[in-house]
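ok so for the tutorial part 2 we go from a plain amino acid sequence to predicted structure tokens. step 1 is just haveing the sequence, like this:
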Amino acid sequence: MGTQHPHPVTALVVGAGNRGCAYSAYSRAHPDKLKIVAVGEPREAIRQEFAKAFGVEQQFAGWEEAAAQPKLADIALITTQDQMHKEPAIAFARLGYHILLEKPMAVTEEDCEAIVAACEESGVMLAVCHVLRYAPVNRLIKRLIEDGTIGDLVNIQHTEPVGFFHFAHSYVRGNWRREATSSFSLLTKSCHDVDLIRYWMDRPCTRVSSFGSLLHFRKEKKPAVAADHCVDCPLTVQQCAFNARKYATSWFGETVMRDAGVDDIEEALRVSPYGRCVYNCDNDVVDHQVVNFEFAGGVTASFTMVAFTEKLCVRRTVVHGTRGELTCDDGESVMHFDFATGQKKRLMEETAHAHWGHGGSDYYTIATFVDAVAKKDPSLLPTRGRDALRSHLLTFAAERARRTGTVLSVDL
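step 2 — the prediction. this is what the tokens look like for a chain of 412 residues:
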């Protein structure tokens, strides 16, 4: 990724929201490697804000307008809402763009398969933003498993603590609250955790089961004195953990005002969905879920996604081997315990880009993709389409297991 490129890779960004901005920031850090030349975004104010921030001259009111033009760039960075991935991904692949696609790939198995097929048929690279594979600490865990540091792999326990207010923002009030307009939360929030477990395991999953429900954010849980909107509610921010007035002192507040198109957080809460009482929303996605996996050879793993946590998406992972154990709960280091010697050792990986999203993973995701395109070498990509598809299919299988209350046999 430190290779000098004779000319920067050019990019069309489709969807100028938070994720589009996160990956596009690489062009400002490394203008010699990546140049944003066009943006497709239906929200005019956000489109213009993005164009100003990244020096983009070619602006389109949607991906359809951009796709109607002769090829504009080397890559298409697709960061639209989840249900809007399939059509632009296929269209731009057929136009010869290499595709960097935000997770999840799409919201049905058939659409995921169609995207992969279109990219393969068009001879373009497809990388899915399963960003956790790119995190230095997760790659360190992978190396420690592979080099036999803990003996034979037996079990992995992996937890995603979503964060109580983050979950309320995104999955109760926000864009990912309903399956009909987005998808189920294991897919929208945690498909890259399922992918990460597959990455560490490096063997087929053979059986999966799952349990979970929408336990708390329900109308019957609403306090008797609570109002329908937080700005009208007598409960204070100390009395209600999910009080939307907390946006005033949270980074989420910037997103709320940006989406509402206003500069005042109180007004934004009145005119946007983010001011609603969490017990008075139209959400239906689960707020906690566990998934159990059996892999070839009898090795097992468990994954927990839970809304009700202090930590915000700082995963906790414990890897059990026959000769030792690895624990990671800070996103930066791994504690190795050796059974034979009884010694513990903390192992670190470089964190020069930890200030980027997902502990630096966002940086390495876009940097790796740009490098692969510049070198015309898809082997550099850890999250290529066909492998990412298998992780998605396993996520869909886990959700089927939850809904049917069964243990499903798979080969993924």
